[in-house]
Amino acid sequence: MNSLRFDAVKEAFNRKAVKPEAHNELTSEYFGKNVFDIQKMKGYLQQSTVQAIQDSITNGTTLDRNLADEVASGMMKWAIEMGATHYTHWFQPLTEGTAEKHDSFIEYGGKGVIEQFSGKMLVQQESDASSFPNGGIRNTFEARGYTAWDTSSPAFVVEDTLCIPTIFISYTGESLDYKTPLLKAIQAVDKAATDVCKYFNPDVRKVSTYLGWEQEYFLVDESLYAARPDLMLTDRTLMGHESAKNQQLEDHYFGAIPARVTAFMQDVETEAYKFGIPLKTRHNEVAPNQFEFAPIYGEANLANDQNQLIMTLMKKIASKHHFRVLLHEKPFAGVNGSGKHNNWSLGTDTGIGLFTPGKNDTKNLQFITFLVNVLMAVYKNNALLKASVMTAQNEHRLGAHEAPPAIISVFLGSQISQILDHLEDDSMGDEITLKGKRQMRLGISNVPEVLLDNTDRNRTSPFAFTGNRFEFRAVGSSANCASAIIALNSVVAAQLTEFKASVDYLISQGTSKESAILKIVKQYIKESKPIRFDGNGYGDAWKEEAKKRGLDCNGSTPEIIDAYTSEQSLKIFEDMHIFTRKEVEARNEVKWEVYSKKIQIESRVLCDLAMNHIIPVASQYQSLLLEKVARMQSVFPSEEAAVLSEQDMDLIRNIAAHIQLIKRESDEMVEARKVANGLTDGREKAISYHNNVLPYLGSIRNAIDALELVVDDGMWSLPKYRELLFIR
Ligand code: ADP
Ligand code: MG
Fold it and tell me: Which atom number of ligand 1 is nearest to the Cα of residue 466?
């Protein structure tokens, strides 16, 4: 009998909630305690220096190098008071998560060791980080990379280390991270959107990108986790028969949060607040043992840093509570996967949300203008937007259980749809009746107040308009949000630029400003129609329909990535100054490499499970059955024994068939891997992994899951779905 599984189950089952960190302060009293924000700078820096930093944040200007020494020593003073002994440039390479290399503050001074942190160390650090993915950009002779301070994201102290958010670029200036292009994409939208805003309000100086992420995740007890090599090594279960009960009763979503989980959440919140992360919402998600955190939205670069930080904090804090956090997009087959909905919006420095319907004609024309430009951008670049969220992990989630399909479409809701339909139709008069709502006048100069019905929602759409923002739901739970926001901002910036050129041209030909805007808006409404879909995105009918509409329906990650290097995408990236061709190509190389490695690791782990766990256990049980059949023969007359053993014989054959399949397909999978590994081209290798290795993971799993159903439960060595999903 196997004891590891049962020991783990017993341990997990008997666990009590761990007491969360006690504190008597109000959240507002310790919020941002670990962050060197503007308020704290005032206590450590000269007023003029704080002002210079503030300006560099609001205007995106570079901070005067001469101030760096003062900022650095003030920052160090604060950090040492916070208990820090080390500092690190904290950056986001093209792997998952963040990277940091800690250096102590000590230097040799005149009389021995002193604490020192110079402006040079703050502003820029040379990293010998040649092992970070770079897609071949850095040859060994110039393996240097640089990290440089991003003033728009404040430094913070984690335990004994001062963390300085930085960008990460190569010696030759190419970006090797997520933050650099994110900052560029935020700037690109700022410029393009501000120009368009000036049609409506000449006072607008700046348009910011806002992001509100919703982080979904699973929790699994650490003992059970440790008994599952697949979870430990791949972050997802590669096998496991569906539990008799999973989410069909819909009793988990918004249900009472289990005590151990509440304690975990409270600790995460306390930590998050110290780092200035405004967590607002916590709740159960749809699947058993699935949960969510969401903050109050904020400026996109900072919000994304906070999301990166919270993923790290969650992992750390989970250990204290004897849990493991699974951020994988699809840790369990047969139940919901985890997304990270990116709520995205644009807002002006005059306080106007550009996707918020206004109270007067001008504001509403502005609202419609921005909405329709987003529609157009998403329509024309639906393949690229999908590419920005596709990974080996998210591939399992999209299109499965209650996740949007791997086809990008936009949900607008019936009210907005009616307004667009009306605007598009020149033959309609100025009056329209919105279903169940009051009369609304719509004409050239008066797009009236739009009152949105908040219940008009659709959960199946990958990209939904939700009243004052768009919710990009296809983004996966483990993703760096920047990937999606970079793509989205780039295409929207390019679209707004094109829009402005068209409107300006009409104006130069004598058309009035309003008529010119409306003319182009109408044209866009007509053209972008194929991207609008308010129906059920989960149905097969939609896949057929989407194909007819010419939307990208490819579900293979390595091929979807090609959308980054289409002439259209490259032109956008270059025109908007987000990426050079070299950078895009290098990043694609990294994506293909990561994809191949992920499948390779999963394939190895599954072979290991099959050979060292599943087959031995199934064979052992099969031997018991064989012994029983043999004994029947010795006790009963042969014919009677045969009748009595019929079921057992069937079972023996059944087990044998599954074992044979598992062995045969494991061998074939190893061969397929060899073929894939033999390919030198990264793209071809990834495609080969997708087409020729990945399918085996499914079919071998099916055979293993079939064995799980028939083999004696007492012998089964790996924790089952019901244990992983229901013990908390
Ligand atoms: P739902 O369950 O309806 O998706 P949640 O409350 O879970 O909503 O999450 C909504 C997220 O959207 C929150 O992070 C919220 O701060 C964010 N959000 C709200 N308004 C905006 C906006 N204008 N721009 C960006 N994000 C927003
Ligand atoms: Mg939500």
Answer: 3
